[in-house]
Design a protein that fits this description.
Blueprint: H1 3-17, H2 21-51
Helix pairs in contact: 1-2
Length: 71
Amino acid sequence: MNNLFRGLLAGYGAKKLGGGCFSTILIFVIIWVVLGQCSNTLKSNESEENTTNQTELKEPGFVSLCVPAFR
């Protein structure tokens, strides 16, 4: 995810959810980290799909955006 877009989303969320100065900064940092983890999870899932063996059976289920798949 682009850092500018990530910062704008985190800033907007912090403005809406934060009460004071410290809580707004804390919420901004939490949202920033969560958005970064979602982006990293998507990249790692894409690279795993490219390197998996074709004879391996794929697990049925739904696709999760932020929770890594446990195998």
